UniProtKB/TrEMBL annotation:
Pfam families (alphabetical): tRNA-synt_1c, tRNA-synt_1c_C, tRNA-synt_1c_C2
Class of the enzyme per the UniProt entry, highest EC level: ligase
GO cellular component term, pick one: cytosol
Location of this chain's protein in the cell: Cytoplasm
Identification of the protein by name: Glutamine--tRNA ligase
Molecular function terms, GO-annotated: ATP binding; glutamine-tRNA ligase activity
Record note on quaternary structure: Monomer.
E.C. number: 6.1.1.18
UniProt organism field: Oxalobacter aliiformigenes
Chain location of the short sequence motif 'HIGH' region per the record: 44-54
Amino acid sequence: MNADNKNSNLSPSSNFLRAIIESDNEKGTYQRPGMPKVITRFPPEPNGYLHIGHAKSICLNFGLARDYDGRCHLRFDDTNPTKEDQEFVDTIKDSVQWLGFSWEQGGTAYVHYASDYFDTLYLMAEYLVEAGHAYVDSQTPEEIAKNRGSFSEPGKNSPYRERPASESLDLFRRMKAGEFPDGAHVLRAKIDMASPNMNMRDPVIYRIRHAHHHRTGDKWNIYPMYDYTHPISDALENITHSICTLEFQDHRPFYDWILERLTETTTLPDGRVIGGFLQKPLPHQYEFARLNLTYTITSKRKLLQLVEEKIVDGWDDPRMPTIVGIRRRGYTPESIQLFCERIGVAKADGWIDMGTLEGSLRDDLDPKAPRAAAVLHPVKLIIDNFPEHLQEECTSPVHPHYPERGVRRFPITKELWIEREDFMIDPVKGYFRLFPGNRVRLRYGYVVECTGYDMDDAGNVTAVHCNYFPDSKSGTDGSTAYKVKGNIHWVSCEHAIKAEVRLYDRLFADPAPDANNKDFRLALNPNSKEVVEAYLEPGLAVARPGDIYQFERHGYFVADIKDSRPGKPVFNRAVTLRDSWGKKK
């Protein structure tokens, strides 16, 4: 991983955020001594595993910082202790690094936690109370919700809204000291209960929560709300461009309100001057469209349901849209970055077809992945006239477009494994593979002619018989004399590597599995996972976990990073060679 995030060869795509940054840079909006002009942040809550939508935000925030010689902070929004855990902190760090980005610059690690600022946030809240911008509300949660109003009706002022600042300050300090149970009081900003923006109707900024925090332990009995913490954290870290998804657009007025209040000073009746916590220029929040990917769900609650109901095999199931899942599936950091570049950044929500993500993986892997032969649904092919103990070496390129990468070597023998679909007793029109009396070429080997087949009592073909033509071997002068339309792959029964191969497909058969409050479980694809015992060419015996190959005809496969081991390989299908779903539309 490059510490300065300079490891991308992608050309930057145009988007409205680039225009904003370039305008700010030209005007010197954030020209500050010794600091970059662009400082972004990626602020996940450590309450679960990141998914492909987060990957877009990571690539956007870290990518913009990289492209404009700035820096990006990793900040954990750990203000809800009942749902957060160190496990999630660790997996988030790992996911950011795996995607190819770093929060380090110039030897300094810019990794932060909202909990780093708890003391400062509390002092600022006391100031807001003393300055008349906040009050302690003693209504029940139900009363607060009822009096908040609706989109068509203004809210009602709390009976505690005009509580004297001294009384609110005393209650707030006692809340901090742990004197009251959860829900007894909250601290609210005093703005406008008649505002058409619901987020400006005296939002709650602190609540009582007697809970153990994974970093601060039992020090705090009150915790700040996200909408209060987020803008202040941005300002304390000198963030320039605070980039959020569109659902936070209506929260921006409060973002600006709280920062403006904290730049001000207030003179109290006793002559004390308080405030002035922040200085301009202040961060500015910008919103972009979140990633809506077809055939996928990204709701944490619904993903958790998939895991808890054992519909999938955990958070890292290769069918999951989590970063740990797509990583195990065989997606590469470069393919995710390529995908994010291709979809760009928009101001309005829209849908991105899953085919775009899969196409990005194909385009990334095609020049990288060495080729290999694999038979996934085997049936035996017996070459009756091939000498019993003869082994002849066949060769093929490691990669057909890069001869400098060398050749693969594997033997052809009397008994081979071929794909069951490569033989038909009664061929359909246009079928050019094996059937009685037809000739095909064994790829990189000989031309053979089918002479018959064996069947069991149930009518299943157990073996196919053929004869070969000794002068037809690929690469020899005689091979040009044979003209055949069919070309099939194979592996030697004696030398093949037996492997478990997991044929993964899209988890859902519906492009919008949870739209309009549908039960997403009804849209599950029954063919999203098939496990087969396959046979691979002998060279794959050296495959290490994480190694990716193109299995000729079948697609791109990765040696499972969790289960594959020497002597017992396990491969996952990352993606097929073509978009078979596109044909179904």
